[in-house]
Design goal:
With 282 residues, this protein is α/β, with parallel strands linked by helices. The protein has one domain: Dihydropteroate synthase-like (TIM Barrel), CATH 3.20.20.20. Helix content is 41%, strand content 15%. It has ten helices and ten strands. The chain has helices at 43-56, 77-91, 105-114, 130-134, 162-179, 199-207, 209-216, 228-234, 242-254, 265-280, and strands spanning 5-8, 11-14, 22-28, 60-64, 98-101, 118-121, 140-144, 187-190, 221-222, 259-262. The strands form two sheets. It has an eight-stranded parallel β-sheet with strand order 8-7-6-5-4-3-10-9, covered by helices on one side. The longest helix has 18 residues, at 162-179. The relative contact order is 0.14. The mean pLDDT is 93.
Length: 282
């Protein structure tokens, strides 16, 4: 049975069958993210964007200081801390849970001390000390699947069975977390759309979202916003992928996703409201 609640630091979310899917708003404080790099680099601009997302109905704010777009180079630790820590300190009492998008244990440690409520790790908490850093906290952990690394992941992704292999990886990482004493109520999972996947792999995972949730017993986060799969299907450049993203996100929640990680908060909140009204009508 899938866990019905997510403990997210200072916050708790109900994620049962009748619960509202959560909207996680992306706040990139980077110069080079694929979609909004450079838009919110200064602290004032980042805080203004966060305030806008809160007004639009965001449930979780996901702060990222390092671009993990395909082909990106690793960012030095000191630079990532310089980018994200002032934002976390400034927003920790904003009334919404703060997620930090990082794979570096040192950033995780500092973010938790500063008040972060969730750690969103594209590397699945595989770094040597990642799980030991987070285990004593009460923050949520989003465990993501990625084949290879951002520099090489989209060169030639290959799977015998993408869903089976993603489930196997996530199962191993869930077991690793639980072996550290981390409660299942703190965990959610991300199939890693676009992280070492072709269009066909992404579509297969999207259709199998409910199976992933059922077999692993944890809520699924879907990160589809403006991604290349939307561009391949629609032929649209990144700044024109809102309609395609909304369609993909509604498909994701129809197939069992409980959290949507998005750039366009207001449009997603509206789309989810309409979907829920139709879904819940009887």
């Amino acid at each position: 049975m899938t866990t019905q609640m997510l403990q997210c630091g200072r916050y708790h979310f109900s994620l049962g069958d009748n619960a509202k899917p959560l909207v996680m708003g992306i706040l990139n404080v980077t110069p080079d993210s694929f979609s909004d790099g450079g838009h919110f680099q200064s602290l004032d601009l980042a805080l203004s964007r966060a305030e806008q997302m809160i007004a639009e109905g965001v449930d979780i704010i996901d702060i990222g200081g390092e671009s993990t777009r395909p082909g990106s180079q690793p960012l030095p630790l000191e630079e990532e801390l310089r980018r994200v820590m002032p934002v976390i300190y400034a927003l920790r009492d904003c009334g919404k849970p703060l997620s930090i998008d990082t794979y570096k244990p040192e950033v995780m440690r500092e973010a938790i001390a500063a008040g972060a409520d969730m750690i969103n790790d594209i590397n699945g908490f595989r770094a040597n000390t990642a799980l030991s850093v987070v285990k004593e906290s009460d923050c949520a952990l989003c465990i993501m699947h990625m084949q290879e690394d951002p520099l090489t992941m989209q060169m030639q992704p290959k799977y015998e069975s993408v869903t089976d292999e993603v489930i196997s990886f996530l199962h191993e990482r869930i077991n690793a977390a639980e072996s550290e004493g981390i409660a299942r109520e703190r965990l959610c999972i991300d199939p890693g759309f676009g992280f070492g996947k072709s269009l066909e792999h992404n579509l297969a995972l999207l259709k199998d979202t409910q199976r992933i949730a059922d077999e692993l017993g944890l809520p699924v986060l879907a990160g589809l916003s403006r991604k290349s799969m939307i561009g391949v299907i629609t032929g649209r450049p990144v700044e024109q992928r809102l309609a395609g993203t909304l369609a993909a996100n509604l498909a994701a929640i129809a197939h069992g996703a409980k959290i949507l990680r998005v750039h366009d908060v207001a449009a997603t909140v509206d789309a989810v409201k309409v979907w829920r009204a139709i879904h819940d009508f009887n």
